[in-house]
From TrEMBL:
<keyword id="KW-0812">Transmembrane</keyword>
<dbReference type="GO" id="GO:0005886">
    <property type="term" value="C:plasma membrane"/>
</dbReference>
<feature type="transmembrane region" description="Helical">
    <location>
        <begin position="12"/>
        <end position="30"/>
    </location>
</feature>
<dbReference type="InterPro" id="IPR032816">
    <property type="entry name" value="VTT_dom"/>
</dbReference>
<feature type="transmembrane region" description="Helical">
    <location>
        <begin position="50"/>
        <end position="71"/>
    </location>
</feature>
<dbReference type="Pfam" id="PF09335">
    <property type="entry name" value="VTT_dom"/>
</dbReference>
<dbReference type="InterPro" id="IPR051311">
    <property type="entry name" value="DedA_domain"/>
</dbReference>
<keyword id="KW-1003">Cell membrane</keyword>
<comment type="similarity">
    <text>Belongs to the DedA family.</text>
</comment>
<feature type="domain" description="VTT">
    <location>
        <begin position="30"/>
        <end position="160"/>
    </location>
</feature>
<keyword id="KW-1133">Transmembrane helix</keyword>
<keyword id="KW-0472">Membrane</keyword>
<feature type="transmembrane region" description="Helical">
    <location>
        <begin position="172"/>
        <end position="193"/>
    </location>
</feature>
<feature type="transmembrane region" description="Helical">
    <location>
        <begin position="140"/>
        <end position="160"/>
    </location>
</feature>
<protein>
    <submittedName>
        <fullName>DedA family protein</fullName>
    </submittedName>
</protein>
Length: 204
């Protein structure tokens, strides 16, 4: 993976950064925690400029976020409700739960999009609920771009400071992505278990 990322960036320059960050949003196993710090190291070697590298990373990320956003739009809240009513009983999810989640996103969606863009493990996933909830494209793009710019800028600057040790960023942040993802799965399982226990108590 690292060799492929390095070769892509070396051969394609800024276009390579944009392409890699685009693919990172479509296929999360490709780590931005390695791409942008490598760009920062390349900047330290005077082979790239700081702001064009960040711009390429942001553009690639935003282009990669749009497919998931439109998948969410395509699925939509109503279809999700129908699926929940039809199959959701197996995991204790109903159309009412979907509606509650959608109402929450209507109130806090802009903040959620912004802050999730700064969180490893969920930054690529937030586009899906944004699309499902019917969040308008312009606010989605604005808050995503601001959060993404901060994230990409931080990773690039860290790689610039670390120099040849830029891989330490991925070494330390990589496990964070896994922990966040596992934490979300555990929280979801706990929520399902509590819902089932509550339903059982009601039936007694």
């Amino acid at each position: 993976m690292q060799e492929w990322i390095t070769n892509t960036m070396t051969s394609l320059g800024y276009v390579g950064i944009g392409l890699l960050m685009f693919l990172e949003n479509l296929f999360p196993p490709i780590p931005s925690e390695l791409i942008m710090p490598l760009a920062g190291f390349t900047i330290a070697q005077k082979q790239m400029a700081f702001f064009p590298a960040i711009l390429a990373g942001v553009i690639g990320t935003m282009l990669g976020a749009l497919p998931w956003y439109y998948v969410g739009k395509l699925v939509g809240e109503e279809n999700l409700k129908r699926l929940a009513d039809k199959y959701g009983r197996w995991i204790s999810i109903s159309s009412r739960d979907i509606e509650k989640a959608d109402n929450w996103f209507d109130r806090h969606g802009e903040k959620a999009v912004f802050f999730c863009r700064l969180v490893p493990g969920v930054r690529t996933l937030i586009s899906l609920p944004a699309g499902m909830s019917g969040m308008h494209l312009v606010p989605f793009l604005i808050y995503s771009t601001v959060g993404t710019t901060l994230w990409v800028g931080l990773l690039t600057y860290t790689g610039y400071i670390l120099g040849e040790k830029y891989e330490l960023v991925d070494e330390y942040l990589g496990p964070v992505s896994k922990i966040v993802f596992v934490g979300l799965v555990v929280a979801f399982v706990v929520w399902i278990v509590r819902k089932r226990q509550k339903a059982k108590r009601k039936n007694l």
